[in-house]
Amino acid sequence: MTLWPVIGVLALFFMGVPCAFAMMMVCIPYFLADPYMSATVIAQKMLASCESQSLMAIPFFITAGAIMNYSGISEKLMAFADGLVGHLTGGLGHVNVLISTLMGGISGSGAADCAMECKVLVPEMLKYGYSKQYSAAITAATACITPIIPPGINLILFACMCECSVGRLLAAGYIPGILLSVAFLILNYYISKKRGYVGARKKMMPIGQLFKLFLEAAWALFLPFGLIMALRFGVCTPTEGGVLMGFYSLLVGKFVYRKLELKKLPQILTEAVNSTAPVMLILCAANLFSYYMSWETIPTQLTQLLLSLTDNKWVFLLLCNILFLLVGCFMDAMAVMIVIAPLLAPVVRALGIDITHFGLMMCFNVGLAAITPPFGTYIFMVSGLLKMKTSEMIKEIWPFIGVAIAVLLLITYVPGFSTFIPNLMYGVD
Length: 429
What we know:
Layout: H1 4-14, H2 19-32, H3 39-48, H4 57-69, H5 73-85, H6 91-104, H7 110-127, H8 132-142, H9 153-161, H10 166-172, H11 174-195, H12 207-221, H13 223-232, H14 238-256, H15 265-295, H16 298-309, H17 313-328, H18 333-350, H19 355-369, H20 377-385, H21 390-413, H22 416-426
C-alpha cells in the first residue's frame, strides 16, 4: 500500500494550499507514474463526479440561496425574529441566534449567514451597546446552526457520498438544530444579563403586529418543511427540489415581497456560479483522491484496522468526533464530507450505527470546526468582514464552543435526537 499521496495531501493542507489543488497536485503525479494510466483517463475520473444527477442538487440549492438573498426573504425573517425576542435581555443577540436558525432553511450556508449578519445585524448590536468582540463571536458561532437545518448543503453532500436517503438526512437536522439554538439562546441571555445588554425595545411587540410579521415571513418559514414533505412523498427528487426552490424564491421575491429586480438576475447567477465553481472543483479533485484510495484498497484496510481497535460503537463515535474536529480545522467542510465520509461509512454500517445519525453528527462536527481556533473559517470570515483581529474575538467565542460541544455529545450518545423525525416520516431504517 502506497501512502505517500496521503502524507503529501496532509502536508499541503498544513502549508495552506487549497484542498482541491492539494489533492490534484498529489494524485496526478501518482497516476501518471503508472505506465497504464493516461492523462485522458485521469481527466475522465475527475469529471465523472460532476455527472452525478444527485449531486446536481448542490448547484441548484446554491442558486436558490443566491436568489433568496435578493428577494427580501432575509429581511422578513429578521423582522419576525426581532418581533419575537427583540424586547428580551440580550434581545439582538437572541435575534442573531434565531435568524441563523431561520436562514438555515433558506440558504443552507453558514458563510452566507455570516456575511448577511455582519452587514445587517452587527451594526445594530453595536448601536445598542454590545461589544464588537461579542457581536463578532456570536455571529460566527450561530453560523454553525445554519448547515444542519434543512436544506443544508453538507447534509445533501453526505447523503450523496454515502448513498443514503437525502430526505432522511434533511429531516434529521431539525431537532439537533433547535437544540443548538436553544443552548445558544440560554448562553446569550446569561452573558447579556451579566453585562447589561438590553433589548432593542422595552416591551413585547403587540400580538397583532407580531402575527402580521409571521404571515409575511411564512412564505420562507414553511419552505424547508414543504421541501422535505415533497421528498418524502416522491413529488420530486432532491435535484428537482433545488430547481423548485429556486423558482419558488424567484416568484416570492418578485410578486409577493416585490423586492427582486429582474435586472439583477445576471448578478445573482454570477454569484451562484462563483459559489458553485469551488464546490465542483473540490468534488472533481476529491473524486480523483477517492479513486487513489480505492486503487490502494485503503477503505477496506481502514475498516479492518478500526474494527480491530474497537468494536464498541460508542467509543468509535467518540474517536470520530475528535477526528472530525481536528480535520475540520484544516480542511474545507465539503472536502471532509467527500474524502472522509465514504471511508468511514463501511465501518459505521459494520458497527450497526444508523447512517443518518452518523451523517448528522459529522455535519454538526464540521460546522463546529469552522469556529474552532486556530483555523476556524467562520472566525477568519467574520473578523475580515468586521475589520478586526481574530485574536479579539477568540476569547469571546470559547463559551459558545463549549456549549456546542455539550450539544454535540448529547446528539452523539442519544441517537433519537437525530433519528426520531426521519423514523417518524420514513419508518425505521
